Amino acid sequence: MNRIERIIEFLKQQPKDNFLRHALALEYIKIGEELKARDLFLEIVTEFPDYVGSYYHLAKVLEKLEQREAAIEWYEKGMAAAKLAKDDHSYRELQSAYEDLVY
């Protein structure tokens, strides 16, 4: 059983586990399934806006899908969420990626 299959099996038992959903999205990126990854990251940040780690990866996937404006929007939302969570590391990471895209 490959990593994706194992994660999906775990998700059947815990369908709202953000760590598992995030891990699955990252695995999808590795195999070129950016749309599946995007959808999972969107689910996570929509249902759990304080799950700061997914904003960066969502925006990066959107960049890869050439959805620049959407990527900018999600970087901005991620920076706001990181600020609320007082997560300075994530904030700086999001801000750096945002500035690389915008400027």
Kindly list the characteristics that best describe this protein:
103 residues; globular; 0% strand; mainly alpha; Serine Threonine Protein Phosphatase 5, Tetratricopeptide repeat
| Strand fraction | under 5%
Task: Please work out how many helical segments DSSP would assign.
Answer: 6
Q: Can you count the beta strands?
A: 0
Q: Taking Cα atoms only, what radius of gyration do you get, to the nearest Å?
A: 14 Å
CATH architecture: Alpha Horseshoe
CATH classification class = Mainly Alpha
Q: What average pLDDT do the residues reach?
A: 97
Task: Summarize the amount of helix as a percent range.
Answer: over 70%
CATH superfamily: Tetratricopeptide repeat domain
Distance between the termini: 44 Å
SSE string: HHHHHH
> What is the makeup of the main sheet?
none
Fold-level CATH name: Serine Threonine Protein Phosphatase 5, Tetratricopeptide repeat
Number of domains: 1
The residue ranges in which pLDDT falls below 50 over 5 or more consecutive positions are none
Shape: globular
Query: From the helix content, strand content and strand pairing, which structural class follows?
Result: mainly alpha
